[in-house]
Amino acid sequence: MKDILNITATGVNLHHLIAFFETEGYNATNLTRKSQKELSFCLPKKEYKRLKKEQIFALYKFKVQSARGITQVARTIFARSGLFIGCILVLLTTINITNRVQVISFNSAGHTCQNGDHCIFRGENFERLQEVLKLNGVEVHSRKDSLPKSRDLERVLMREFKQISGASLQVVGVKANVVINESKLPASFLTDDIVAPMNGIVVSIETISGKAKVKLGDVVCAGQTLVEAQNVQARANITLRTFFHEATIYSENQLTYTRTNKKITKHELSVFGMNFSKGATCNYSLYETEVSIKYVFYNFFLPLKTKSTTFYELEATEVFVDFESAKPQVEKELEEKTRALLPHNAEYKATTFATFREGARVRVDCYVEAYLKI
Q1: What is the DSSP string of 261-304?
Q2: Could you tell me if residue 336 is inside a domain?
Q3: pLDDT at residue 63 above 80?
Q4: What CATH code is carried by the domain that includes residue 114?
Q5: Are residues 62 and 109 in the same domain?
Q6: How many Å apart are CA 40 and CA 199, to the nearest integer?
Q7: Is residue 160 domain-resident?
Q8: What is the domain range of residue 124?
C-alpha cells in the first residue's frame, strides 16, 4: 500500500501545474480546484519527494494537509496501542495480501469500431491506454482502496484519448473491469492532418507526405492545419517560433515582520494518543511559532512525549524597497516561472522583459522565445 499525501498547491496559473503532472508522468489523483488560486490533489509520497526537486516546485506554495498509507496507519496504531502492535501488523499484512486486484479486464470482446487504426483497443492505442491506467493506479496487484474513482478515471481518459466518450471502473472480487465507451472520431481527425498546437511563426517546414498549407514565414494560429493528409497520413518536420509569457506585480512598499518581547508557551503531554495541555491561549493578531517535541519515555508500554509550542508576537512595519534593487531577483524568479511552461519538444532561445510603472507598483512581463518542433 503506497503512502499517499493529500496536498494543496497555491498560486496562479494552476493549469500549468496540472499539465506538468500529465507530461512528466506524475500519478496525481483527486484533483480539485477549490478556488482560482488553490488546487488540492493526492500524490504518492515518493513522487512528492521527486516533485520537490523539480524547478516548478518553487513557483507554487505546497502544503501537505494529511497522509494515508501503511506508514501512517502503522504510526497511528503504534502510538495508541503499543502492546498489541505486533498482532495488528500481522492482521494488516493479511488484509493487504487479500485486498489486491489480480485481474484487469476490458469490454473489448465483440467490440465493433468505426475508427479503424485509431480504435482504442488496437495496437499503440491499447498499449497507451494500459500505460495511462497504470499511471493512475489501475494495475494487477494494486490495492482496491487505492484505485481511482470512476469519475476521476473517466476524466483522465477523456483528456488523454479523443476517441473515449466515457469510462467506468467496476471491482468485483479480485477483478477490476474497465468499461470504455468509444465514440466515432471526426473525419478530419481520421485523415491525420498536422495542426498547429499553438500560435507561432513557421521558421522551417519539410513535407514528407501530404500537402503543405503554409509556407516559411507564415503566422499560424493554434488549431490551424499545417499539412493536409491526402489518402495517407500527413508527415512533416515543422518548427514554429513561439513565445511563452508570464507577468508579476512588484510593490515597492514592503511589509517586514519583527518579534516583540511578548511570547506565550503552551505545553502538551501525550500518551497513547491522549493529549493533556497546559498554558494560556494565544490571542496575538500576528505571530509565529516554534515547536519542540521530546520523548520522555518511549517503548511498547508507555510512549510518553511532551510538546512545547511557543507563540512569538510579531509587529508589521512598512518599508520602501526600490524596484531597481530587487529587479535582478524579480526577473530571475519570473524567468524560471515562464521557462517552466515550455513543453519537452521546445528549444529555448531567448528571454526579454518589459516593465510598466504605476506609482509604487511595477508590472514586469517576461517573454520567453522558443522553437517548437512538431
Answers
A1: EEEEEEEEEEETTEEEEESPPP--SSEEEEEEEEEEE-SSS--E
A2: no
A3: yes
A4: 3.10.20
A5: no
A6: 31
A7: yes
A8: 103-182
pLDDT one-digit tens code per residue, 25-49:
888 888 888 888 888 888 888 888 8
Question: Is the Cβ–Cβ distance between 365 and 243 less than 8 Å?
Answer: no
pTM of the model: 0.42
Are the CB atoms for 364 and 333 separated by under 8 Å? no
- pLDDT of amino acid 98: 62
Cell of 259: 518579534
| All cell numbers assigned to 91 | 492482521
pLDDT class for 86, splitting at 50, 70, 90?
Answer: low
Cβ of 188: how many Cβ atoms within 10 Å?
A: 12
Q: Does the residue 154 lie in any domain?
A: yes
What span, in angstroms and rounded, lies between the C-alpha atoms of 298 and 303?
4
Burial of 46 (0-12, 13-18, 19+ CB in 10 A): exposed
For residues 267 and 314, state if they share a domain.
yes
Among the residue ranges 191-195, 218-222, 247-251, the one predicted with the least confidence is 191-195
Q: Which residue has the cell 508527415?
A: 235
Strands 346-358 and 361-373: antiparallel
Q: To which H or E segment does residue 97 belong?
A: helix 85-98
Last residue of a domain, one of 182, 204, 232: 182
Residue 224 belongs to some domain of the structure: no
**In this structure, what C-alpha cell is assigned to residue 342?**
515550455
Is the Cα dihedral 348, 350, 356, 360 positive or negative?
positive
φ and ψ at residue 185, rounded to 5 degrees:
-75, 150
User: Model confidence at 83, in pLDDT bands (50, 70, 90)?
Assistant: low
Helix (H) or strand (E) holding 14: helix 14-24
Q: Helix 70-80 vs helix 85-98: angle between axes, to the nearest 10 degrees?
A: 150
Q: Give the separation between CA 281 and CA 284, rounded to whole angstroms.
A: 9
pLDDT at residue 218 is higher than 60: yes
Residue at a domain's end among 182, 198, 232: 182
**How do residues 142-155 score in pLDDT, each as one tens digit?**
777 788 888 888 88
| Residue 234 pLDDT level (bands cut at 50, 70, 90) | confident
Pair (107, 64) in one structural domain: no
Q: How many structural domains are present in the chain?
A: 3
β-sheet with 4-10: strand ranges across: 29-35, 38-44, 4-10, 61-68
